[in-house]
Amino acid sequence: MALTGAAVWQLSGGAGAAPSAGGTSGQQADGYSGLPHTLVQVSPGGCGAGWSSGHTTTGLQVFDISNSGIAPADVQLVEPASGAVVGEVEGLAPNRSRPLLVRLAAGSYAFRCLQQDVDAATGPTVKVTGAGTGAGQGTPAVVPVTQQDLIPAALAYQHWVAGQLPGLVTDVDALHSAVASGDLAGAKQRWLTAHLAYERLGAAYGAFGDVDDEINGPRSHDTGFHGVEYGLWHQGSTTGLEPVAAKLLSDVRGLEAAWPKVQLDPAVLGVRAHEIVENAIEFELSGRTDYGSDSNLATVGANLDGTTEVLTLLRPLLISRVPMPRIDAAMAAARAQLTAAGNTPLGSLTQPQREKLNAVFGDLVEQLAPVASVLEVRRTQ
Amino acid sequence: MARDAVGKNVARRSVLAGALATGAAAALTGASAARASTPSPAAPRGFHGAHQAGVLTPKRRVAAFVSFDVTAGDRAGLADLFGALTDRVRTLTAGGVPEPLGISAPPADSGVLGPVPPGGLLTALVAVGASLFDERFGLAAQRPVRLGTMPAFPDDDLDPSVCHGDLLLQLEADDTDVIANALRDIARHTRGAMQVRWRIDGFASPPRPVGTPRNLMGFRDGTANPDTTDTRLMDQLLWVDAGQGEPAWATDGSYLAVRLIRMLVEFWDRVGITEQERMFGRRKDSGAPLDGQTETDTPDFGADPTGDVIPMDSHMRLANPRTAQTAEQRLLRRGFNYDRGTDADGNLDMGLVFCAFQQDLERQFVTVQKRLAGEPLVDYIRPFGGGYFFVLPGVRDANDRYARGLLG
Fold first, then answer.
1. What are A81-123's pLDDT values in tens digits?
2. What crossing angle do the helices spanning A296-318 and A267-279 adopt, rounded to 10°?
């Protein structure tokens, strides 16, 4: 530990910025001692100093990026023509060095340095030539997404949720009425409808805040939907459930009333695009949140609806950044498998059915994982 | 179980095992061209070769046996699965710098083995079950002719949830983190196409104090294995070749019987030593046959025709009568001990992942198994799972992949 710190300190203080073949203790600490290393300095006056045409190589290599400024910096290696990023080091502290591992195809690159409260600085364009790695064979270059880029999708999503909430309130109101009047069969049916209406709003939970736990907390059946569910299915009557349903109704009415004032953080949309399905696997396909209704598969269907909505809104940003056809195919496969399984209780699925379901949803989350990566908000200016 | 085969050349074999570890086998099968980093000195051989590693290679300290059901919808999906498996096992075996993905995706590698996983840490083997050749992928005509579904033998108590499977992965390493990383990586790249059906982890004990490692009954297991350095013998006993009526793609494959065998160790520990030794036919301390002095002594059944020294129904004698007629029934045992918790009685669940490689299941494993039916040892063991699998031919070079001959 102490050795590593000392080595990094030396590296960052070193004036010599010539490309190095590796071998210093600092480079060994990163584990990439077998690869070509280039020392690159980041400072307010010089972004990318130490790398220049004539000292380049294609293929797998490491840039040891050292922040010799006085403020933390984000450093990106970009293709200057498109602004696409092939690699980045985020939040690099002053007097610290970190390795940036990339595979470079032949082409033109530059470092872009973003220090707090300072305009972005782009270093000299460096032309990389060499054999062995043709165009398109390097680390994928992705045009970063800014906060600005995500605002239209966030507003549209906010609008979509606003359109869903009155229906949710109506459904919960109907549930409450059935519970209050002692109509067990009616209450069960209306519970399903109302719960699915809520589950469709998967990307908004974060914005709902703590009340989401009250409404739909997966770990308890004291309150909210699962409180009513437990009572209806386990005790087989509506006795004593009216206060729980009334609280639920008041919570969703509160959501509806507060929603116009909510400011949805645009940065969360990309994360939710894959987290909705992650949560569906963790809490629904596992049966973890079944408190008697055996409706997990229907819930997963509602979660897919919510994911579809988010992907639809994000599609313009995603189309050039991730393989959308594969995501679309994985979504379709998940939907088809869910349809084939029908709304049967999880426990009655055959082993082949269960394996198929696990396979398509497992594949779907793998395909969705890059969405959050490419939609992470990054500064470019 | 501690099934015996003809004992010979054991001393020579242990000498040659060292040569195997330092690259003799790599020379035999062609060293990996795709290796991205320096292999560790312990690496028995590279990934590429006519035969897969994990059959003749020395056992490593820990192993996982993971049976999968293929969920891919069609033949193209199955071919993609074998492509992905080849790519991942090749990469995991070779080690090297994980591919940087920039901001396009989460990291390609878990990092469990450090930023640059060393090469040579993993030995992996891929085998397929009879169910892969059902109607789903149109492969019925390509089924290895001796591959069927493992039946329940008379002394078995099989649990269907830990039997069979479309595909079996045998992962071996000297440290458990390597296994965990490999399985996680492979699952990540194959999630849509296959799902785990059952899994059991095992370990190979070190020699105690010398000789062949012991099983959890305290007896040496594998003493009389055929000499794995004898290429001609391996061709006679293990490898599938042209002229055996097998489909052409199956050449250089082998058959694997996996048997999950619980040992009722508490019960066993309450049995006297003489009775224990008479059940195996060997001394517990030295591993010597009851008519011999050392582990490597060959029992002389001819001199003991009525079983006064080595009982007629002892495991060793039934498993391998050491006659000219039974020589072709020998198989290569390569099992691992397992230890995994307790049962409702509070008894320990431990035993053996019995693995036997051979050329012909019926001629070898089944014949021996039938001879063992009702042996005294069956009271102390409970076979509860496993299956029959066909070990795919090796991946020969950087352009080859698992099951290329089967799927094109």
1. 999 999 999 999 999 999 999 999 999 999 999 988 888 999 9
2. 150
The distance of B352 to chain A (nearest Cα, Å) reads 26
Q: Which residues of A touch B71 (CB under 8 A)?
A: 355-356, 358-360
Residue A227 lies in a domain: no
Domain CATH number, residue A95: 2.60.40
**Got the DSSP string for B56-118?**
SSPP-SEEEEEEEEE--SSHHHHHHHHHHHHHHHHHHHH--PPPP-TTSSS-SS--TT-SSPP
Q: Which residues pair with B385 in a beta bridge?
A: B260
pLDDT, one tens digit per residue, over B90-135 is: 999 999 999 999 999 999 999 999 999 999 999 999 999 999 999 9
If contacts are CB pairs under 8 Å, which of residues 18-77 in chain B contact chain A?
37, 69, 71
Instruction: Mark whether A267 and A159 lie in a shared domain.
Output: yes
The separation between the first and the last C-alpha atoms of chain A, rounded to the nearest angstrom, is 36
A85 to chain B: nearest residue by CA? B103
CATH number, domain at A156? 1.20.1420.20
Question: Residue A29 belongs to what domain range?
Answer: 2-128
For an interface test with A, the pick among B81, B104, B135, B196 (most A C-beta atoms closer than 10 Å) comes out as: B104
* Residues A304, A156 share a domain: yes
Same domain, residue pair A109 and A164: no
Same domain, A164 and A113: no
Interface mutation vs chain B, best among A356, A357, A371, most B CBs within 10 Å? A356
| Chain A residues close to B105, C-beta within 8 Å | 140, 369-370, 373-374
